């Protein structure tokens, strides 16, 4: 079996899909995108076609190694996102070839199902108490929200108080044991992150996310020492070598590699195992589409330390199209009592609506994140 075609597609709201077709008629799908840079990543996939055409798609480890190591320059968001989408598609092919879900080829599941959470609140969160209660009534046992609007390195305490009021509203509406994940989104710098993390303790958050950016990963220990709340991070890291530095730096309790950014299934399976050796939990980042979500679930299934899965159905970014629009087997992605079943179909477990993908690609999106500024005119972290 040889790779005969490599196709790339833009699909709304902000995603990129990869389709790899073999000479035996088996096709696989991947999700290759770096949000805001979809065109760059898909161009990178096309650039890598020279290494793929004619190759045996079952030799995934070898292909991954060629794509990563045969290039003089390696790593980073664009190259690793392109490799991620290709890797997902290759695993999809291999699962279909052996007529088994990918996680069966990775050793079989150690979970029967995966807990999931739902986003609420948007970029600048408001009315989160009612939104969280709505999710609880829909069966979810946990939500995630952005903590705050933009914060300068030293900022006013009225913004801190506003965060506390929002989290208090969720706790009051949903009860003591409802899971609340609070995403600092890299908008907060160390001085205010220590303050906010400490003050959030009283609400027993499930975790705080990206209290500072991983560019400053040496600060996680200091923030961890300032509070008794689990710290999650890792969506902006791209390889096992990035996560090696994070795990060695310490202070982090949950890693969040993105299956469409951190090298796909092949690499994230290794990252998850590294984290397990540090007694660190896994909760993959996934504000993306159905192929990325299915890839996450296949890794979750075989990772003992997987604790909860992000998913983007209903997330504020999804304008025009959403996750299940591209899925024919939508029943396999049904959430029940805060859990989702493991993939059922061979391969990744997604039957992609190819006709809709082709239609979407006729008018490529050009999604960009907003640019925020502080009151003094300086650029704020989004």
Provide an overview of this structure.
- With 382 residues, the chain is an alpha/beta fold.
- It folds into two domains: 3-103, 2-Layer Sandwich (Enolase-like, domain 1); 107-344, Enolase-like C-terminal domain (TIM Barrel, Alpha-Beta Barrel), CATH 3.20.20.
- The chain has helices at 38-47, 49-52, 60-69, 77-97, 102-105, 128-137, 157-174, 190-200, 220-225, 240-249, 264-277, 290-301, 354-361; strands spanning 3-11, 15-22, 27-31, 113-120, 142-146, 179-183, 207-209, 231-233, 254-255, 281-282, 309-310, 335-336, 339-341, 372-373, 379-380.
- The strands form three sheets. Strands 4, 5, 6, 7, 8, 9, 10, 11, 12 and 13 form a ten-stranded mixed beta sheet that branches. Strands 1-2-3 form a three-stranded antiparallel beta sheet. A two-stranded antiparallel ribbon has the order 14-15.
- Helix 1 packs across helix 4 (77-97).
Helix-strand layout with pairing:
Blueprint: E1 3-11, E2 15-22, E3 27-31, H1 38-47, H2 49-52, H3 60-69, H4 77-97, H5 102-105, E4 113-120, H6 128-137, E5 142-146, H7 157-174, E6 179-183, H8 190-200, E7 207-209, H9 220-225, E8 231-233, H10 240-249, E9 254-255, H11 264-277, E10 281-282, H12 290-301, E11 309-310, E12 335-336, E13 339-341, H13 354-361, E14 372-373, E15 379-380
Parallel strand pairs: 4-5, 4-11, 5-6, 6-7, 7-8, 8-9, 9-10
Antiparallel strand pairs: 1-2, 2-3, 4-13, 12-13, 14-15
Helix pairs in contact: 1-4, 3-4, 4-11, 6-7, 7-8, 10-11, 11-12
């Amino acid at each position: 079996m040889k790779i005969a075609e490599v196709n790339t597609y833009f699909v709304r709201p902000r995603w990129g899909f990869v389709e790899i077709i073999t000479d035996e008629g088996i096709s696989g799908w991947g999700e290759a995108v770096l949000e805001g840079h979809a065109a760059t990543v898909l161009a990178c996939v096309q650039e890598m076609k020279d290494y793929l055409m004619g190759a045996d798609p079952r030799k995934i480890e070898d292909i991954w190694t060629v794509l990563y190591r045969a290039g003089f320059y390696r790593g980073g968001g664009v190259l690793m996102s392109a490799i991620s989408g290709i890797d997902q598609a290759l695993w999809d092919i291999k699962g279909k070839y052996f007529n088994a879900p990918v996680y069966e080829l990775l050793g079989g599941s150690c979970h029967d199902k995966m807990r999931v959470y739902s986003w609420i609140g948007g970029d600048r969160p408001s009315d989160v108490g009612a939104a969280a209660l709505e999710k609880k009534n829909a069966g979810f046992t946990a939500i995630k929200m952005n903590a705050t609007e933009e914060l300068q390195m030293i900022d006013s305490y009225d913004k801190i108080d506003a965060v506390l009021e929002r989290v208090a509203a969720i706790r009051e509406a949903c009860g003591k044991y409802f899971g609340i994940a609070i995403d600092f989104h890299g908008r907060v710098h160390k001085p205010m992150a220590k303050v906010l993390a400490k003050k959030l303790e009283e609400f027993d958050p499930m975790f705080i996310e990206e209290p500072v950016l991983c560019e400053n990963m040496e600060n996680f220990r200091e923030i961890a020492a300032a509070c008794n709340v689990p710290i999650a991070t890792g969506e902006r890291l791209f390889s096992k070598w990035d996560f090696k530095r994070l795990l060695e730096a310490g202070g982090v309790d949950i890693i969040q590699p993105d299956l469409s950014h951190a090298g796909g299934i092949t690499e994230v399976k290794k990252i998850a195992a590294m984290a397990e050796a540090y007694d660190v939990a896994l909760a993959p980042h996934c504000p993306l589409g159905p192929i990325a979500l299915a890839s996450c679930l296949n890794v979750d299934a075989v990772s003992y330390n997987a604790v909860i899965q992000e998913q983007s159905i209903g997330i504020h970014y999804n304008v025009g199209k959403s996750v299940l629009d591209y899925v024919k087997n939508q029943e396999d992605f049904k959430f029940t009592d805060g859990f989702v079943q493991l993939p059922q179909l061979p391969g990744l477990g997604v039957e992609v609506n190819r006709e809709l993908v082709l239609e979407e690609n006729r008018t490529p999106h050009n999604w960009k994140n907003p640019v925020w500024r502080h009151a003094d005119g300086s650029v704020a972290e989004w």
